[in-house]
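pasting for ref. prot 1 ->
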Amino acid sequence: MVEPTHLSRRRARQIAVSGQLLDAPRRTDIVPTVEALGEVQMDPTSAVARTEHLVLWSRLGSRFRVAELERLLWEERALFEYWAHILPTSDLAMHRVSMRRYPEGDASRRVYVRDWLRANDAFRRYVLRELRRRGPLRARDLENRAAMGWRTGGWNDEGQSVPMLMDILWHQGKVMIVGRDGQQRIWDLAERSLPDVAAKPPVEVARELAERDARAGAIASPDKIGFLFDGPPPARDRAIQALLAEGILVPIVVDGLRGRWVTHRELLDTAFRGRTTLLSPFDDLIADRDRTERLFDFRFRLEIYVPKAKREYGYFVLPILRGDRLVGRIDPLFDRKARVLRINAVHAEVDAKPSDWPPAKRAIDDLAAWLGADDVAWPRLPAVWR
């Protein structure tokens, strides 16, 4: 049995930041960045900017352009959208496993989806035929010919059979999102928008996923790596054990961090250079709230869905990362009409230093410039940063 490597919390934080490409220097290209991360979560909330845009801005800085991302998605097809994430097309063979297995997961939903598709086979064939003949199309461009309407007791029941069918076909890899008309997705046949690649063998997929997730997660629980969107691929546990035996994954013990943890061997030997940036509330560095609290001494909760009167910090709060420390957070809103980035509140952590503010302010100014704001409206600053 391999003895775990002992890490201080500071060194563990540095590794976590490096694994998420948030160290210095900034990255320069979108596709290699997404390939290294594995995926970038999407969310339409745009109090400042969509989360996928903020995630890429945090790593690429002002060189990141939304138009370039859209070109890579909709024209070059170097990236594609799946399960509300942006994925590299180079990983398509890996994700074919999820597509082939769908529907998976909860047994009652799996049975419902299969029964619903069986009852609506003519509807499904009509949609695919229309896309082949007329596509690309929006969901509203297609007739609702469902023989059995979608009924699961949720918000998407009433008159949502076309969008639900598109989602199912999307998860199966039969159709893909090929553009957007405002917030509406534009669909086409997957065979016209993505390369024709077969699914990789499950053993190969399990190994690639586990190794990549450990590198991006950096300080990762072995129970949370090697997952596809619909669950772990077959052979996942065997792949993790093999990577541990080969020394590619390394068991670690971190001061003050309970539980089992692993990291990628390459990250242990990487020198750390920090920088200061802002994080989307959906950023993967802070996605594991418990790990964030114990590793960074930073309690973070998403308050978008919390009533305004009950919010502690704000609606779309961006943590401030300085080096390997989370030193504070801001509550911003981009007033697009006035072209002003309004900072409703600035909060400093208890261990924040006066020297943390100048680089934090530069990061906020950089965000404003990238957004196209002409001005930043500041609130009263915390005492340590005045």
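and prot 2 ->
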Amino acid sequence: MFLHGRLRTAALIGAVLLAGPRILCLLPVWLMGVAAWRWRAELPPRRGGAVIVACLAGFIALEALGGQQLFWHPSSGWLPPSSSAYDYIIGALFALFIIGLAKVQLPMPGSRFEKVIRGLAGTSFGLYLLHYPLLNFFAALVPGQPGGTLHRILVFGLALGGALGLASLIEPRKSAFKRHLRSALHLLLGKGRPPAVARQRLS
């Protein structure tokens, strides 16, 4: 975004080495989300419902057949724990599901329900940022057998509640953080502060 030429290539290689293979294994799933955003307009509207049904049917069929156990592999230090090809299949189904939803004519909610939807949608960045650290934190903190049903419910509930609470604090300040970071990057790169119009557009 901010570099060009050889310097950008060197920075990309450095970021890859810093992230390591475990994080890079998740890169294809992230790219599926990018593809869903960019290609959502390519699907004809009349096929949106069929894509949704196909994705749901595919997920239910895979789970009925064993889900992740179908793609089990021995533990490896190069892969994230419990990682398998099933992660990419679920990612692809979910990306297609989002594209299908974007093409379906859904009834518009009332004003009260719309506020709830917008409020929950506004926590998406905080949920993305915080859910995994909080899951690990509460999994270590909550007593009981890790595989037990009560333990899982408590860990999931506490992590979700904590992520939503922290997200409500992060989201209103996100634009200000972005402006400060962009100004700092411009100064570090010797470009000076970005113009006010550009700062507003980028935020």
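Residues 199-203 have pLDDT under 50 and may be disordered.
DSSP finds nine helices and no strands in the chain.
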